[in-house]
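#structure-requests
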Amino acid sequence: MRVAPLEPLVAAVQGTWLRRTTAPLPPAGGPASGRTGPVGHAPLNVVVVGDSTAAGCGVTSHREGFACGFAHELTARTGRPVRWEVVGQFGATARRVRHKLIPRVGADFDLAVLLAGGNDVLGGRDPEHWRDDLTAILDALEERAGRVVVAGAPPFARFPGLPGALGRYLAQRADALDDASRAVCRPRPGSDWVTVTEPPPAGFFSADGMHPSAAGYRRWAHEIARQLTGLGPAGPATGALRTAAGVTLPVRDAAAGDLAAVDDLHRRCSTPTLTSRYHAGRTGLSAADWQRMVDPRHGRTLVFADPAAEGSLAGFANLLRTAPEGPVEVALLLRDDWQGVGVGRAAARHLVRVAHRLGGTELVAWTEPANVRAAALLRSVGARPDFSEPGSVRWALRLDQPGTP
């Protein structure tokens, strides 16, 4: 978008006028969390973080805001209930989201949505500073959620509450931040940048001509949810493990066709590593074994891709269900060259979240008594030994108690 030479000056004058004449709308009232969809199934856990649009400015209740509308859209697409939560603040910039709001976001989310950028545009934020804050925000959200969605900047040129020159000038700034957002999200398998290109329909905006109305939030939620892939009945099929050192490994649900890559993974593991995983002299899995592992009736199996070698796996994990409600037994195999670099801890946190999604009440793992590394991983997520027998120690973590990672 080209801006005429005099437009920045005109925009500055119009901006001063706007600040003097426009009264801010209050955030939405009522509970900032809720649940949609059928009962009796493990819900998708979703958090919406950000500025006044996350906070629901423009509507009277969060039930009319983005988060609840987005939850209804996800339920319609997956058939699953959705538990939603809002952490938003009027006027929040990316810097405030990073330092003030992110610490208020809990863990164990399947999906996090970031609604931010509008205040950074209005404040003339430099794209480089926006990029730095967005990177830090995504680092933090990827530790708390299996997948992160970054919504594009607002369509300032289409805001009926903005004078023409100001709207065009802000739209140019917004484009610069969106370019930076795309660049930050592109290499991150656990984060997606999503925007809406269709013009806002009649009735999209609230009384101030800047924030969405109830109909506008529903439309926005619909357009964002429509563009997401991998949200099947089992929840997000893609995501990422991110270590404290910044190493990222793509994660996805395993499939029957992964058997060849799993066989290769076993060949590249040392005998002690395989013994720690299987507690026996096993060196691989049969086709029948793998078919049972990828059968969703028995639980869930995830594969961790090697980011440096296409088609190669760094590891895999299996979560076994023995009853519709009850314990979830977990087992993890990591290639030797991916041990000791933080991947195991990241995988342990991710597996706790997946066990929650499966509706388990307890996470259970078995280790050898001398396996100090596995014991450290389990302790890092709060598991404790509760039973032992010759050659094995049982570790358990309650999943139905507040504060579970």
